[in-house]
Amino acid sequence: xxxxxxxxxxxxxxxxxxxxxxxxxxxxxxxxxxxxxxxxxxxxxxxxxxxxxxxxxxxxxxxxxxxxxxxxxxxxxxxxxxxxxxxxxxxxxxxxxxxxxxxxxxxxxxxxxxxxxxxxxxxxxxxxxxxxxxxxxxxxxxxxxxxxxxxxxxxxxxxxxxxxxxxxxxxxxxxxxxxxxxxxxxxxxxxxxxxxxxxxxxxxxxxxxxxxxxxxxxxxxxxxxxxxxxxxxxxxxxxxxxxxxxxxxxxxxxxxxxxxxxxxxxxxxxxxxxxxxxxxxxxxxxxxxxxxxxxxxxxxxxxxxxxxxxxxxxxxxxxxxxxxxxxxx
Amino acid sequence: xxxxxxxxxxxxxxxxxxxxxxxxxxxxxxxxxxxxxxxxxxxxxxxxxxxxxxxxxxxxxxxxxxxxxxxxxxxxxxxxxxxxxxxxxxxxxxxxxxxxxxxxxxxxxxxxxxxxxxxxxxxxxxxxxxxxxxxxxxxxxxxxxxxxxxxxxxxxxxxxxxxxxxxxxxxxxxxxxxxxxxxxxxxxxxxxxxxxxxxxxxxxxxxxxxxxxxxxxxxxxxxxxxxxxxxxxxxxxxxxxxxxxxxxxxxxxxxxxxxxxxxxxxxxxxxxxxxxxxxxxxxxxxxxxxxxxx
Lengths: 329, 294
Hints:
The complex is a heterodimer of chains A (329) and B (294).
Chain A: H1 5-9, H2 11-26, E1 40-45, H3 59-68, E2 108-116, E3 119-127, H4 136-139, E4 146-148, E5 154-156, H5 166-170, E6 177-179, E7 197-199, H6 205-209, H7 215-219, E8 225-229, H8 230-243, E9 247-249, E10 259-263, H9 267-273, H10 294-323
Parallel strand pairs in A: 1-10
Antiparallel strand pairs in A: 1-8, 2-3, 4-5, 6-7, 9-10
Helix pairs in contact in A: 2-8
Chain B: E1 4-6, E2 11-13, H1 17-38, H2 43-46, H3 61-88, H4 100-111, H5 125-154, H6 160-188, H7 197-202, E3 204-206, H8 207-213, H9 215-221, H10 233-244, H11 248-254, H12 260-271, H13 276-282, H14 286-291
Antiparallel strand pairs in B: 1-2, 2-3
Helix pairs in contact in B: 1-3, 4-5, 5-6
């Protein structure tokens, strides 16, 4: 494959995109991030990503693995037998897999060979956790082992996670990946509760705290990825998409995410061309599942008011009856 | 309250329709909350619960969460209604009294054949303590649950400190709630307590049972003199006595065993002449006596 296929066939949009890049740089967005900045977002410009065809593997993957490969401790051997279903997930002997998300691989690059507007082109799509605005994986974790921090990073606490995989079940992209035989569940009743630890991209939260840039963004030789204040990145993504007459993914999906993909090719076209499945997230439309419960959630929050009002009304009625000489509460 | 004796049927009305509704709405929504709460952990799928006919929904977190929310609205509203309604009406019979802990231990001993039960009021001392315990557990569950829900809808980036406190308090107190729930069922099934069971279904218990075991309550309903007034009452009377200088009429309904009357009686002559209007004002109105302790 040719590293400049994308650029060559969409030269016009690429040049416009470059203008967009200059604007982004003008805003001072990529590279440096201030520590303590709240609400960060990232942009991934697919018109710039060439899948690092000149390298052994995409640089973002290499950088991520250098940082995260040692995050997973060595699983116990043999793994506890799970009652009643023996459904452990073990990636410890397949650490080298970089063609999908695994507990040892938090980012990978999808390839889509598509024909769009009469042009055949290959698009590369780095995939990792989207760091959603209202991530169900974090908000409904039963043990608060997954949390969205002020800086926008959705981070799993590997010391607290039981590996029940609820976060993966409720993630529209099934991003978190389980490694069995590790984690705190081993110390409780491993046969009956828990099944390991869930792993995924944490947006290099430790680096963000120090004001540094996530390693995948730092490592990208084509500046395809950038990070910055949410609103600025959102604006930049829109400008860039407008400039290349392109499309955005991640701004509306799942109620909004912290990752904006900008592409010259529509995402439904890309979605039809990428391989999807376990550890290989789709690019289809996503409605936030808990959106449907918003009214119900507000009712829970305001239920005390309802109870208090009913209590006052009921008591006043009884008291009025008493005054009338009829104590029948 | 609705407490009254229906001699013709040989029963005592123990709970009114409001209390029965409160109890059953709480009980049923509580069970739903426990089950749907446990289903927030990935257990239905792992433990084949989803394969039980009619239980396929249990594996869908979005369904079980909605059920949890619906039950929570009922549960929270009823709890707050309970506090406000009975608080405003001054119902205090279920609140623990001084000496309840010691008396509870004595009562529990009688279940094992040691000693004899003291005469009871409407509720057993351990019922009053259990009420307070359950109230604390429920209060923590409601508060932590509301924090969690608020986060889900309004503030997904809520401080981790708040989220982890709310989450773990909710989890730990759920365990306590389940234990308290089981203890509650177990207690009513104890042989001496079993006659009270019909009360929570029909609102009334048998009069012969109540006369034997809850004589203080029956006496109160019948408006008889109370051998055991609430501990703070003599204090109040002392204050009234000093302020109004009006003693004998006030002391009389307070009952025997009180040292006040003798002392006051001595003071009385110095205070004469007593204003008739004042004297009348300090005599408790008849309804108040009837309502005492409810």
